[in-house]
Predict the structure.
Amino acid sequence: ATAAELPARTRLFARGFPSDGPQPPARVVPALALAWRTVVGEVGPALGLPASPGPRHPSDDLLERRYRVVADVQEHYYTAPPQIERGWREYLMDVDGRVYLDMVNNVASVGHAHPRVVEAATRQMHLLNTNSRFHYGGITEYGEKIAATLPDELDTVFFVNSGSEAVDLALRLAMAATGRRDIVAMREAYHGWTFASDAVSTSIADNPFALETRPDWVHTVAAANSYRGAHRDADAARYAPEAVADIDRIVAGGALPAGFVCETYFGNAGGVALPAGYLQEVYAAVRRHGGLAIADEVQVGFGRLGRWFWGFQEQGVVPDIVAAAKSIGAGHPLGAVITRREIADRYRTQGYFFSSTGGSPVSAAIGSAVLDVIQQEGLQDNARDVGAHLAARLEDLGTRHPIIGRVHGSGLYLGVEFVRDRETREPATAETAAICDRLLELGVIMQPTGDHQNVLKIKPPLCVTKESVDYFADALARTLETGW
Ligand SMILES: Cc1ncc(COP(=O)(O)O)c(C=O)c1O
């Protein structure tokens, strides 16, 4: 090059090109800048200038501000999370315009920004939103619709704002109806953060001290996990008689249970079906002692399992009290407890029930629209069909990758359990975290679950297409083949 002098303060744009390998585009989105810098190298030092400090993303400041103002324990996904500000169907978009496939969001049951839900919320917002002690059509119409999805005897609905509140109220209803305070709960479960729902939560992934710190009114039975735990595979049939014996022992020790609570399909373990007949035996035992059967359907209910609208249907039982939330509001804070009239009436012994915004006009309009969409757009069938296709793809991956110990689940509630050894089933915890991070780079939102955080929790919006789940299966295949 010929030496030339440029006037001072002339702006120079310099681009480096690697002598071989991929050629960089003229401009890249900030999310990809670091990766391209690795390929291209630093241009500054070649011109005798200091190296640039490297790209800094505007979201970095936002994250720092978040850490300053939001409680640390209020978690967010990922150490370096993309800043997601938009969603559509099963897709999420970050502020750089990168599109991610959302495979984890059971809260967004009908898909992000569903036009019917947006329209229902907007319309009702313009008309009226108020506390739910007023008399308006929405709460009644929505109550009737929810009750119609349940067996006839579950005819009375309470509205609250979240899953934690729904479980809390379900427990308090059982206590009020029986006049007792003891509760039997399945271990390794998460039921919420409020006082009572937290008391029956023993998942060590959510609280490492969970088992040692239970209040004296909480009694537990083993997690009926047929893949790991005391009884595996065909042996899992032993969980039910052992739980029954435990309940008998708890009663013999003087604690008469107000109720028994568990997820009707083991969501916290990654979508593991309870052993066949488990709830029939355990519900019968708790009822024999005068207690009530409480079903936590917060994750698994509402069509997600594909073949069954409610998880308890898979077990061939009818609970006394059902707690629902998450997907019923498609991201809007909404929870419901459904029970029999005589149980609901017993709450009066505790006083008067109201939840200011539970079932408010806007919440009821959204809940109604969500249920309509699930029913009219055939989303339960979609969960069954697309879920079966995805499960088959994951099973197929399992034949090539020994790290896949088992594919769990039903419909669009699936779990891929990673193990270091298929015999011992040692959980592949670190590997699962790394796989989730790699999947994010490949454009898929996925998170670990389970007490060992070694299961991919696959619970996308119910409208997810076959093409999208194929993208996820391909991304997982690529990760397992090329490393994480
Ligand atoms: C099974 C189950 N029950 C209850 C809850 C609590 O729901 P929320 O987070 O809406 O309070 C959760 C939340 O993850 C859950 O998974």
In short: The longest helix spans residues 379-400. The CA atoms of residues 124 and 362 lie 6 Å apart. The radius of gyration is 26 Å. The chain has three domains: 24-56, 63-110+379-482, 115-376.
